[in-house]
Write a structure and sequence with these properties.
The complex is a heterodimer of chains A (354) and B (514). With 354 residues, chain A is an all-alpha fold. Chain A is 74% helix and 2% strand. Chain A contains 14 helices and four strands. The radius of gyration of chain A is 23 Å and the shape is globular. Chain B starts with 8 loop residues before the first strand and ends with a helix. The chains are: A mainly alpha (354), B alpha/beta (514). At the A-B interface, α9, α10 and α14 of A face β1, α10, α11 and β18 of B.
Chain lengths: 354, 514
């Protein structure tokens, strides 16, 4: 009797660990599943042109998702990124078209690199405002960034009274041409924005592993109290993640308006939700402490490929929403199941070992 | 003890095992509860008493084992199940809804209603007052729970449990916040309940109380039952022996070395309590190089709060702190650590570990600055070397430093927390209950490490509520009671009685004022 139960327990234990491994690889499995599915059912899915186009789409989500991953790892959330994308796009367009009017009747124009820097700083500043609200004024991250979501979107609309800024080609006499390079230029056959993503992703992954502040992000999200007791400056870590998230959003704002050669104030609406979805799909735990940049990038690509593939198959956009939602829910359910299974396996092991 | 009259057993636990991440709290423990008797449960902190009670109350489910009630096997999956079976509990921590009235608290989840016309508040208050009067509590059922002092809140908890018409009533340290007069009332209520056939489970650290009220006694040690007897057959020495075990703690032998000059001193540390009075009351204390200073005190004596003030975790404390004769200016933990202080917190899970990180990352999280190249790049090879060194020095049983820290036993987790603190290179090490919730072997390791560190010139300040521990480990012993530092004596002149009576000092004066 005892032997029977023991073998049964051993069986369930080993099958449990096999299941665990499968669950841990779920993001990869999901990526391959969508690629295989669409290469069978969507015509032209595997063509080079389509691959590059899809990569470009996924890139936008991936930028935001990288910033979002750090924020979520600290146990927070940043709902304002979509609006920052819109506002930053408008500022970029405005700087190129109108420059900055100085009080003495002069107007100052900036070249494209200066514009990019100014826009990045604006993104970082909005992130800093989020960070200050959360650390100094103790506003819950959800509420603080919900507030900045509305404020930033409102400011983007006010900037041009809701109008689109078209034709951002710049003028030769002002030396601010070449804005289109960011969105439509290519290096070695790949879009410039993809190269920037590679740089940002590698930088973020390096940062998470080899820089103290990056390691502290995980500690703060895992146990804020223990982190504080270990001398980690928790507020500084939180300020950083929101500022970095704002920076990532600014890049997306630049990329989108450069691609379209126009700035529209509603750009980026709901992108924050895609970013959160990508992070979660990539294994970032909403309760903080766990997540990887690599997983997030794969998550962003799963979502990007899923929506583009469905379009190519001619699935109605209403169904696309339903499917995307289901995929996210399944991802989180599997994540929870994995955690519970893992816990049970360790506890049973310990109880047996006595 | 062979001749135990097993009486009328109402509830029986058979081979209950409960594992938490990091520690096995109960190992195949058996327990029998008898009708119409006070079943006393004793054991040191972390012996598993509270876990056992939480299982009986349906708050926790056992990992392995069976529960039998009146000869029938039952499953307690939720507190509601337990209540349905007539099991009530008064928890150690207060579980009242501060924003509700006393009557609403007593009838929470089983409100007296008038059909669809909602809650009958008047009837609730009336009945609640009845229960409270039986306890001679002098509390009006209409007051808000949060407006009551702690002692009276405890009485409300007891009233709630009594009102449930329970067959089994568990009281987890019910007297810890009560005055002597309130304890007398409580004991009268217990006698009354006993006469009505209620099985009472009584947990307390106060041995004289147990001897006075108990009928049966069960002793727990490290999650196992080590003694079971009728109270009339035994004495307090028997209890202590069963609690501590025959392997009378294998403490590290005193390594004789003379402590050096004073490295650490506090002057008049004060921390006001929210309810008035002081959690830390003008504490001035000094530690010398290579010296182990043990701070003995009961729960709530202010030891943890003192340590937290020293580490800069509280903004509102007053007083001065010196390291190497220099007054510390910065009031935040980061700068305190840089100044050579380090704390092993009492609550390992909440304040010591980051559960989601690996063993390695937990060890180095406080000291990453040491491994930097070019000011920002962590030299992973150097970090790995330091991690392996710490694992070896502290004899941490880690199969792989990359595993989750929660995959280890509590003792090894504690060693990781100690390792983390040591890697910051402290001059003064503060250890708050360093042996709490870890097994005997790990305890011995921890004590050995403390001795070795002191030998290497580290000044160690540790707190404990274990008398034997403080006597065996310390060079000097400080006793705290109710926030005050009552006395500091040299180990050579200290006696058990002296220390125990000093630890009650603060409460005596409090009762005289009241």
């Amino acid at each position: 009797m005892t032997t029977a139960t023991q073998t049964a327990a051993a069986d369930s234990f080993s099958s449990g660990s096999a299941l665990l491994t499968l669950m841990k690889l779920r993001t990869f499995i999901a990526l391959f599943a969508v690629i295989i599915f669409f290469s069978i059912f969507a015509p032209n899915f595997l063509s080079t042109a389509n691959m590059i186009l899809m990569t470009k789409h996924a890139t936008q989500n991936a930028f935001l998702a990288i910033g979002m991953t750090f924020v979520i790892i600290t146990g927070g959330i940043d709902l304002s990124v979509g609006s920052i994308v819109g506002l930053c796009g408008m500022i970029a367009g405005g700087l190129i078209m109108y420059g900055v009017a100085l009080p003495l009747g002069y107007t100052m124009y900036f070249n494209v690199i200066e514009v990019a820097i100014i826009v990045a700083v604006v993104g970082i500043l909005i992130g800093a405002i989020n960070g200050l609200l959360i650390t100094r004024l103790n506003v819950a991250p959800f509420i603080a960034t919900l507030g900045t979501l509305y404020v930033a979107r409102g400011m983007a609309l006010l900037y041009s009274d809701g109008q689109t800024l078209p034709n951002l080609t710049g003028r030769e006499d002002l030396g601010n041409q070449g804005f289109s390079y960011l969105g439509s230029g290519t290096i070695l056959g790949l879009p410039v924005s993809v190269w920037i993503l590679v740089a940002v992703a590698l930088g973020a992954a390096y940062f998470a592993r080899f820089v103290p502040l990056g390691r502290h992000i995980f500690a703060v999200g895992g146990n804020e109290r223990a982190s504080r007791m270990s001398g980690i400056r928790v507020n500084r870590v939180k300020m950083f993640v929101y500022m970095f998230s704002g920076f990532c959003a600014a890049i997306v704002g630049l990329v989108i308006s450069s691609e379209l050669m126009a700035s529209h104030p509603a750009t980026g609406t709901n992108l924050e939700l895609n970013a959160i979805a990508a992070a979660v799909l990539g294994g970032t735990s909403m309760s903080g402490g766990r997540g990887t940049i690599g997983g997030t990038i794969i998550g962003a690509f799963v979502i990007g490929i899923l929506s583009d593939g469905l379009v190519m198959m001619g699935v109605s956009s209403f169904w696309q929403m339903v499917i995307k939602g289901l995929v996210i829910i399944v991802a989180v359910v599997v994540d929870q199941a994995q955690r519970r299974l893992q816990q049970r396996v360790t506890l049973m092991q310990m109880a047996k070992a006595g | 003890m062979s001749g135990i009259d097993d009486g009328d057993v109402i509830l029986e636990l058979k081979e209950i095992t409960k594992a938490y991440s990091g520690i096995v709290a109960l190992k195949k423990a058996d327990l029998k509860l008898r009708r119409g008797a006070v079943n006393v449960l004793v054991g040191e902190n972390g012996a598993g008493k509270s876990t056992m009670m939480r299982i009986i109350a349906g708050v926790e489910r056992p990992t392995l084992g069976e529960i039998w009630l009146d000869g029938e096997r039952i499953h307690l999956d939720s507190p509601a199940d337990a209540v349905r079976h007539g099991i009530g509990i008064v928890f150690q921590e207060l579980n009242l809804f501060g924003n509700l009235s006393v009557a609403e608290n007593i009838f929470a989840t089983r409100e007296l209603t008038r059909g669809i016309r909602g809650i009958d508040h008047r009837a609730q208050v009336e009945k609640a007052n009845e229960f409270l009067n039986r306890l001679e509590a002098g509390i009006s059922a209409e007051t808000l729970a949060e407006d009551l002092p702690i002692g009276q809140q405890q009485l409300v908890e007891i009233a709630r449990a009594v009102s449930l018409d329970t067959r089994i009533l568990i009281m987890d340290e019910p007297t810890s916040a009560l005055s002597a007069a309130e304890v007398d009332v409580l004991f009268r209520v217990i006698t009354d309940l006993k006469a009505r056939g209620v099985a009472i489970v009584y947990i307390s650290h106060r041995l004289e109380e147990l001897m006075r009220i108990g009928d049966y006694i069960t002793v727990l040690k490290d999650g196992q039952i080590t003694g079971h007897a009728m109270v009339k057959d035994i004495d307090t020495r028997w209890i202590v022996r069963s609690m501590i075990g025959s392997d009378a703690k294998d403490f590290a032998k005193q390594v004789d070395h003379e402590p050096g000059e004073e490295v650490f001193r506090t002057e008049n540390i004060c921390l006001p309590r929210a309810q008035g009075g002081f959690a830390v009351d003008h504490v001035s204390i000094g530690v010398r190089k290579g010296e182990i200073l043990g701070i003995y005190g009961l729960m709530g004596a202010g030891r943890s709060e003192l340590f937290e003030c020293i580490m800069g975790c509280h903004e509102h404390y007053t007083g001065k702190i010196y390291v190497d004769g220099q007054e510390l200016k910065g009031r935040d933990t980061t700068r305190r650590i840089r100044n050579g202080l380090a704390l092993i917190p009492e609550d390992r899970q909440r304040e010591g570990l980051v559960q989601s990180m690996s063993i390695a990352n937990n060890l180095t999280m406080a000291s990453l600055g040491q491994f930097l190249r070019a000011g920002f790049h962590i030299d992973v090879a150097r970090e790995a070397k330091a991690i392996n060194e710490a694992i070896r020095n502290l004899s941490i049983k880690a199969r792989n430093p990359e595993f989750d820290v929660t995959s280890m036993s509590g003792g090894n987790q504690q060693k990781v927390v100690i390792g983390k603190a040591l890697m910051t290179g402290p001059k003064v090490l503060l250890m708050d209950e360093p042996s709490r919730g870890i097994d005997v072997g790990a305890k011995a390791d921890v004590f050995l490490t403390m001795r070795r560190l002191a030998g290497e010139g580290l000044a160690i300040l540790f707190s404990t509520s274990d008398l034997e521990e403080v006597m065996a480990l310390s060079d000097r012993i400080a006793v705290m009671s109710n926030g005050r530092l009552v006395t500091v004596v040299d180990r050579r002149h200290a006696t058990d009685e002296m220390i125990v009576s000093a630890s009650a000092e603060g409460h005596k004066t409090k009762r005289m004022h009241a």
